[in-house]
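step=predict obj=Cytidylate kinase n=242
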Amino acid sequence: MAHGELRGVVALDGPSGTGKSSVARRLAAGLGARYLDTGAMYRAVTLAVLRAGVDPADTDRATEVARAAGVVQGTGPDRSTTHLDGEDVGAEIRGPEVTLAVSAVSAVPEVRALVVAQQQRIIADALDEVGGIVVEGRDIGTVVAPDAPLKVYITADAEARARRRAKQDAASGRQVDLGATLADVQRRDAHDSSRAVSPLRAAADAVVLDTTDLDLPGVLAALLELVSDRGLLAQPSGRVRG
């Protein structure tokens, strides 16, 4: 497969509703790179736990389910797919049941270790095959890809993030309650930031990008500038700047 323009890993971290997924997909597509939605992988594992009738608080059984779950995450930026045991679960993992349980399941240390190892294999394969990958989640710059040459922590105030997520839910045909969405955003922020393993935080060398007052093209432009400034774009000769 031909290499794209991006050379290396772009790590995008931040809380839910900041627009990470949308801008990460566009950035990857524009640079001929792969795209990895790490949150979808945790959601797929959470769905497996729920389908097995396991209480997410039962860490031993949740880990057993995670170990056996056949999660396959596609890395095409134009159509990122998530399969669980051969079934496309891309729509189901965005439902309210999974959303309420994913923080608890993803906080289990053994579950995180299993999923992170899989994510690192996906990243290595993408670098070998096309040269670059945009990875988004909550611990990419700190745990999954700590050596990434560009780490960006994308943030926005909670109200703006709730409005964005409510808009996404409405576009997907899901019922929307803005108050409930805001409460869920704040709940996940508190849970993800306080968990013992891989808490949500900006890497020490991450660029913090506040998107509260930026639209999607504005965020994409800022990221493209950062990618260029870091010398991560392939030159006509095939070499990387910098």
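step=describe
The beta strands are 8-13, 34-37, 71-73, 82-84, 87-88, 132-137, 150-155, 207-210.
step=end
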